[in-house]
Write a structure and sequence with these properties.
Elements lengths: L3 E7 L6 H12 L5 E7 L13 E4 L8 H22 L3 E5 L1 H14 L4 E6 L3 H4 L6 H13 L2 E4 L2 H11 L6 E3 L6 H7 L16 E5 L8 H12 L5 E5 L5 H10 L6 E3 L7 H4 L4 E4 L8 H9 L3 E4 L5 H4 L7 E3 L4 H13 L1 H14 L5 H12 L6
Parallel strand pairs: 1-2, 1-4, 2-3, 4-5, 5-6, 6-7, 8-9, 8-11, 9-10, 11-12, 12-13
Length: 379
Amino acid sequence: MTKTKVLFAAYNLGKGGAERVLATLLENLDTGRIEPVCVLLTGEMVYKIPEGIKIYVLDSAPAGNLFVKVLRTAGRILKVAKIIRRERPQVLFGFLTGINFILFAAGKLSGVRCRTIFSEHSTPSIELYRKTDFIYRSLFKYFYNAADLTIAVSKGVRDDIIGSFGVREDKVKVIYNPIDIEGIQIRKNEPVSTTDWFNGSLPVVISVGSFAERKAPDYLIRAFKMVRSRLACRLVFLGEGPRKEELVNLCRELDVEKDVAFLGFMENPHKYVARSSVFVLSSNWEGFGNVLVEAMACGTPVISSDCPSGPNEIIANNVTGILVPVKDAAGLAAAIYELISDKEKALKYSRKAKESINRFSIKNILEEYYGVLILNQQS
């Protein structure tokens, strides 16, 4: 069988969701069908990938001011074009908007005939709201229509790409993110030794993600304050980000700091989630919501804001979890209280959730990826 050489490009393999998806793909690809090559703009590598995959790392220095950013982008395009000429892949596959632009330009500059596939992991009209000028939107429309295909990680992301940027419908396909459900079943049973909060003495509400604006952790803290006024419980955050100090101060202001823990980034968050009473995603916007599927795989009942995009494609409201309006702390508090106080309902939701997530398994999602990466498999 002839292999398809695919050049995957990303900023790095850091702590983001898109980076984790790339690492999952690289770890599980059938190398009898796909020959992967990886190009990273910086050297941060939290997620491990198998030995034997060729990796190019371009640089690691910060970009600096606008002039330096322009020069650096041009330099990166030249470097990636050189790699494409050396490797001669059949497919270029970019992760995230900025990388997609660089990869497309490098592909054209290289002179190598290959297909270009983009992937979008967030809702671009919201994620790029500070970049709404005519030039940027025009570039987005041009590049994404010129590419062979864009993979959107949810139907909401697909609709946003088409509706907000004028990308042709036939140029965008939905493929949900692959989740290592079997691996989670193993890792969730590892012991927790860093804290005694998960010993079952009090209910634990948990959230996993960066402390960024789009994750809206402040609304979860305010909701937790309301829940804790009615029953004893605790709140745990797993993650890092620029808003941590602000969130710590908010906990202090609301007098809940003794019942809120910021445990940082964890390589295995599943063992904490599996021992929690409720998992909450309070985001203002998403692309998919990997952590929701992972929590469902852990058997933990889930609550999410009904934000664009992804959660309402994962959760069937009041069947496999609960959806609440965005930025609704009171609604979030009511849902948390409901699942903590009604254990029978929480168990029913978690069982239904575990039954619903096989569609996101690595095996099923990889077959969809093969269908777009390998030409003779396309329908």
